Amino acid sequence: MSLADHIRTESARLAALCTACGECVRACPMVPYAPGVAESGPEAVAAGLVDVLRDGPGTEAARAWIAACTRSGVCTPACPERIDPAFMLRLATWRAKGALGAAPLIPVKEDPQLPARVKAFARLTMTEEEQRAWL
Ligand code: SF4
């Protein structure tokens, strides 16, 4: 399975499980730094995140939350469905940055050295078969 297919499959799986209860948003320490998130309310922000996972544009507040994520993981134990919201955010970040070929939904910081660093690290951790499929 390619990385793009993995992103699509996992996005669909987690979007189907998420109830948009907003507990992950309530737990998130980055909310004060994400414009519009506190005003929109946790449930609406979570619903916007799920929309991004389903190929939608999300909402302005959901996109701000995605862009503000620092991968603290504080959200994960807060989820009553035992989904991993931090992984959902990661998937949404990839999607919002255009990883599947669509126009980016959030600002993308250009780093021309990043692909080389990612590949070097991946070669240390992946099997030969995974490298052939993913790199
Ligand atoms: S806490 Fe879990 S179920 Fe609730 S919105 Fe977040 S990911 Fe979805």
Descriptive notes:
The structure is a single chain. This protein has 135 residues and is mainly alpha-helical. The chain has helices at 3-17, 23-27, 37-40, 42-53, 60-68, 85-96, 114-125, 128-134. Helix 4 (42-53) crosses helix 5. The longest helix has 15 residues, at 3-17. It is globular and about 45 Å long. Bound molecules: iron/sulfur cluster.
Short description:
The protein is mainly α.
Q: Any idea what the shape is? A: globular
> How far do the termini sit from each other?
12 Å
- Overall domain count: 1
Rg measurement, Å: 15 Å
* Helix content, binned percent: 55-70%
Give a topology summary.
Blueprint lengths: L2 H15 L5 H5 L9 H4 L1 H12 L6 H9 L16 H12 L17 H12 L2 H7 L1
Helix pairs in contact: 1-6, 4-5, 4-6
This protein binds iron/sulfur cluster (SF4).
InterPro entries: 4Fe4S_Fe-S-bd, 4Fe4S_Fe_S_CS, Helical_ferredxn
Keywords: Iron, Iron-sulfur, Metal-binding
Protein name: (Fe-S)-binding protein
Output the keywords:
single chain, 135 residues, mainly alpha, 8 helices, 56% helix, globular, binds iron/sulfur cluster, metal-binding, Helical_ferredxn
